[in-house]
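#struct-help
A.M.: can someone run this one for me? Single chain, 413 residues.
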Amino acid sequence: MSKPLRTLTRQHARRLAISRQHLDGRAAPALLDLIRNLGCVQLDPIRHVERTHLLVLWSRLGQFDETELERLRWQDRAVFEYWAHAASLVLTEDYPVHRWRMDLLHDEADSRQARAWKAWFDEEADTMYPLRDHIRAQLRQNGPMLSRQFEEEAAKFSSRWYNGRYVPRILDYLWSKGEVMVHGRAGNQRLWGLADSFWPDWTPMESWQPEQVTAVAVQKSLRALGVATPTQIKWHFTRQTYPALTAVLKKLLKEGIIEKVQIVENAQPLKGDWYIHSADVPLLEDIQAGNWQPRTVLLSPFDNLICDRDRTELLWDFFYRIEIYVPAAKREYGYYVLPLLHGDQLIGRVDSKMDRQTHTWHIHNVYAQPHAPADEETINGIGTAVQNLAICLGATQINWGNLPPAWVSLLQT
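D.P.: on it. Structure tokens below:
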């Protein structure tokens, strides 16, 4: 006779996720441990407020020594840039997980993306193959280089993402396959070098079977999420790269590494099979006993907590979409909007821009969710969150714009 499923509410699920993401009121771990628990930290070139990886880390650590991050990236090489749920900082110790994707992109029989790459190369074979070989030869001869340092003919192709240049596209191809890595940055420009010369001596270089890759990736994804369905697990960490997921979940369940739970709201269980990692059961029980510390903080639009938009709506009743690529006249909230986490609720959003020349953070609009609290504790929490981020941004002045009537006292914080 099977034992009854462990039951939790949506609030418990939210609090567990927030705690596992280190967005609660407890002291955050050291920087490398934080990245280890998150699994990945997304990278993005947009700096309307600040680079997203810094926003993600600031939300959890506050102002920290950014030279430590640079050391982890370029000296220790404990983290590297690769695909996770998007282009991200990931852990070198997790290299075998990411190597599986790299190796797959060499296999045209099993990888649709590998076939698509080859088809594009074949369509323009006279350009693509010689240029690929030229890039490899230049990196072997010269060491790490910026993409603009490669000589390239004037011919271009139509692309939204690469400015029509072949070199960045081919470097992306070689990077995805694990042949080149980002060895450094010149501003926001990537310094490309051969992968063989990037890895520290201690890098685990073994090639894993698909089931082993998924067993590790599932646990990292599930622990970062707190509780999750198979679809949510697959959409997190190494997004959509979970071979044999059903079989692996069944095996982990049988071994007691994970267990099934149910989330019940208004006497009705949420749809789907929900799982928790056994190592997080004590934390869940602590939360259910009332031991949980809330915090108020602004999140990056690409924050790990909300990168799965459907899950965010399901657990938080918060519909969120990035409007960067929406024409200005059609935007509902703004170009670069920071969600506002207060305790276990997403209660609003902040549309803003940082002016680095005047050191002024322009908060154009603040939007409150329906039924968002407006008590003194909430207002003080929001004000503190804004002030803390302003310090991280280096803002000496905050220029407030439109505020919800219930939150107008933010002007005095």
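A.M.: thanks! The first helix runs from residue 10 to 20.
D.P.: also worth noting: Confidence is low (pLDDT under 50) at residues 157-162.
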